[in-house]
Amino acid sequence: MAPSAQVQRAQAAVKAMKLIGFDPGLAKVVLKKLLKVYENNWEYIEAENYRLLADSILDDQESKDPEAKENDDAVSDEPELSRKRLRRQQEELQLSSLIIKPDDSGETSVKRAKMEESVDGSLRNRRGKAVRHVEAQCSYEEENACLSPRLLLGNGTTKATGILEPGPLLIHDRDRDRRHVHERLGSLVCYKEPKIEPDTDVPSENVVGSSIPDNVPCNEPENSYVPLAIMSSDGVPSRLAGPCSANQDKEQKGEFMGRNASTGSVGGCSIQEAHKNHNGVERLQASMQKELMSELPSVQERCSATIDIASSTMGEVKLTLKCISDCPEFRMPTLETLFTVVEDRCLKSCKIQPKFSLMNLMKEICQCAVDIAAEAVKDAQRDKETHAGSLNHDGMATISFSSSLNMDAMETSMVNMDGTQSSQKIDECNKTVNESSFQESCINTSRSLVPIPQQDLAVVAPRPPHDENDIAKGEERVRISLINEFTNEKYPPYFHYIPQNVVYQNAYVNFSLARIGDVDCCQDCFGDCLSTPIPCACTRETGGEFVYTRDGILKKEFLNECISMNRYPDKHHHFYCKDCPIEKSKNEKNPESCKGHLVRKFIKECWSKCGCSKQCGNRVVQRSITRNLQVFYTAEGKGWGLRTLEELPRGAFICEYIGEILTNTELYDRTIQKTGSAKHSYPVLLDADWGSEASLRDEEALCLDATFYGNIGRFVNHRCLDANLVEVPVEWETPDHHYYHLAFFTTRKIEALEELTWDYGIDFDDCTHPVKAFKCLCASRYCRDRKRSKARSRAST
Ligand SMILES: C[S@@+](CC[C@H](N)C(=O)[O-])C[C@H]1O[C@@H](n2cnc3c(N)ncnc32)[C@H](O)[C@@H]1O
C-alpha cells in the first residue's frame, strides 16, 4: 500500500534535512515535536525548504549544549519562540519579494522571485490563459529544474543525479552554522505539489484592514496625498470627509466586493465553485488538506484586504489594493488573472453586459474624476467671465483636458470639442504622468502585480461631450439617442443635461408645502384620482374636469383650446401688464405699453401633498419622458432637432422644456453679454401670469434658459403655425401661476421619424426678442418669416 500523504511529507522533510547534513533520527524527533506544536500544519514546516525544521534542529542541538542553554530554548518547550521566528522569516520573505523593476525591455521582472509550476508545468486561468504562479522556491534560471518531481540539490549547478552528502554539522559557532544551514537550504530546490485551493469562508473582521493611520494630520501640504475615502471591504467608504474625519472604522464587518461572508460566494460565484472545475488530483489534495487543517484558520481568514484611495489636491489619485497575509504561501495573483476572475464574477452575478471590463470600469472612474473637475473649472470660468461682463457663451466652447488623473497637467485653454487643438500638450502631459506613475507603481506594487503602463489606463482621446446612446446620461426613464447623418458635427455643443428645472441664482420659486392649501390638493384621495367618480380638488383649475384620459392623453377639448390659442392668439384673451418686463427690457427708461400676454390654460396635476399615488392618472408631466425620441441633425440647416422614433397619438405628452430658472434681469444680462456669434438661443419666458400681477418687477419675472442646463426640449425647433407640438403650462408644486412647467403635447398624430416642432410665437421683425431672430427654415406654408420676406421684396420692387 502506498504510504499516506503524511508519511510521504515526513519522509521528504527528513530527507531534506539529511541532505544538508542533519542526522535523520534527530530530524524525525524534532519534526514530530513541530507537528505537534503546529497542529500538523505542514505549510509552516515546509516553508522555505524546511527552514523552520532546520532551525528547530539547531535549537535542539544548542539546547543540549550547556553553553547555549542560557541563551536559547528548545523549540518543543517554546512554541512561541518558533512562531516569532516564523513570523520574522515570513516578513523577510515578503520584503525581499516586493521589489519589481522594469528590465531593459521595459517589461517587469521579479527580483529574487522563484518559480513554482504545477504538474503539467502551467496553471490556467478560467479563460484558459496560462497563468504563472510566482513562488519563492527557485530562481528563473532554475525554473526548469522545478519541473521534475524530485529533490534536487543546487549549488549554482543543478545536480539531477549526484546527491552531495555533506558530513554532519559541527556546532561551534552557532551563528555561522545557522548561516551555513540557511545557505544550504537556500540552494535546496524542492518540488511542491499544486497548491491546494483555499477555503472560502471569510470572517469579515479579517478581511477589512487599512494601512492608512487614523491620525492623519489636518494640515497636510497642498499636494500631499490625503486619503479621501477608505473603502471598507463592503465597498462602503468608511471615511469620506477627508483628512480631518480620520476615524477609520476598522471594526466594520464588511464583505469584500459583495462577498457573502458565510458562504464565501462573491457575486453569486463562490471561490469553491470557481475551483470545483480543477482536476480530481486537486480535489483529493483538498480533502487531505482539510483533514490535516480542519481546526486551522483558512487562508482567507489569515488575509486582510484593503482598498486605499488617496487623493492629492493637485488631482492625483492613487488606488491601492493591499492583500496581506501571514500565510507564507500567499501570493498576489497577476493583474490579468485578477481582472479575469473579477470580470467573470461580475458577469455571473450582476447580469451586466458581456462587454463588461474592469479596465474600462477603472477608465470610467478616471473619466468621472476628470469630468467632475472639468465641470468645476468650467463653472469657475463662467462665473469669472460673467463678472467680467465679457462672456461669450455662444460657441459652447469647452475645456479640453488630459484624461489621465494628473489634473495638474490639465490643459485649460479653450478649444473646440473635437479636441484638435490640444493634442500636443495632452501628449506631453501624459508622458510626464506616465513616467512618474510608472515609477510609483514599481515601488508600491507587490511581487506579482505587474505595473500597467499608464498609456493603457489613460483615456487618450478627448472626452465626447455627450453620450450618443443617451444624451440624457441616464437621467430619464428612457434613453435618448443622438445622431447626425448629414455633417461631421458628431455632437451638439456641450450643455448639462438636467431632467428638472433648477434655479440659477436670484429667481424666487417658493415650493413650500404650507403654501398649498386644502383647495389646491386632494389629501383624501387614494390610488388613481382618475378612477374616482367625482373629480378631485386638483381639477379646480380646469373647471372640475380632468384634462387627461385614462390613457394619459390630453383630452380633445382641452387640446383644441391650447392649439387655438397658439395659432389664433388674437381670438383669445390677453393680459396687459402695467409695467411689462418685456418692454422694460427693450427700453428701461421709456418702456412702451404692454402688447399683451395670452391668458393661457393651465393644467394642475396632483402632487406630494395629495393622497393619491405617483401612478395617479393626473400626474402625467411630472412622470417625465416615456416616448422613444431621438436628437438628430436636421437636413434643412436648423441645426439639431428632436424627432420621434415611434408613432405618436394626438394629445400625447412628449417632454417638458427644462432649463435654468432665471429672473428677467438675469436673462437680460446674459443676452446682452452675447457677442452675436451664438448660432442658437434657448430662452422661454414664463409670462402666462404676468398680466395678473399689478406690477411685476424684472427681478420677479421668470423665464427658463436652456442654453447651459436643459433637457431635450431645447432641441425642439420652431415651425410657424402648424407645428406638431403645443406648449401647455402645468403646475403642481406651486398653486399660483408665477412659476410653472412648460409641457409639450402633440397637436396631431405623428409618424415615426417625424421631426417634432413648436411655434415659438416669435415676431420675426422683433430684433429685441430674447430668442434671437433667425432666418426661418420651417418650410411651413404658413411661415411668417417667408411671408415677411416676400412682402419686403415686393415692397422694394
Ligand atoms: C431652442 S433652439 C433649437 C435647437 C437648435 N436647432 C440646436 O441646434 O441646438 C432654437 C434655435 O434653433 C434654430 N432654429 C429653430 N427653429 C428654426 C427654424 N425654423 N429655422 C431656422 N432655425 C431654427 C435657431 O437658431 C434658434 O435660435
From TrEMBL:
Signal peptide: none
Pfam families the UniProt entry points to: Pre-SET (PF05033), SET (PF00856), WIYLD (PF10440)
Alphabetical list of PROSITE patterns matching this protein: SAM_MT43_3 (PS51580), SET (PS50280)
Location relative to the cell: Chromosome; Nucleus
Composition bias, Basic and acidic residues: 62-72, 101-117
SET domain segment(s): 627-761
SMART domains linked: PreSET, SET
SUPFAM superfamilies found in the cross-reference section: SET domain (SSF82199)
Main EC class the enzyme belongs to: transferase
Protein name, entry field: Histone-lysine N-methyltransferase SUVR2
Source taxonomy: Eukaryota, Viridiplantae, Streptophyta, Embryophyta, Tracheophyta
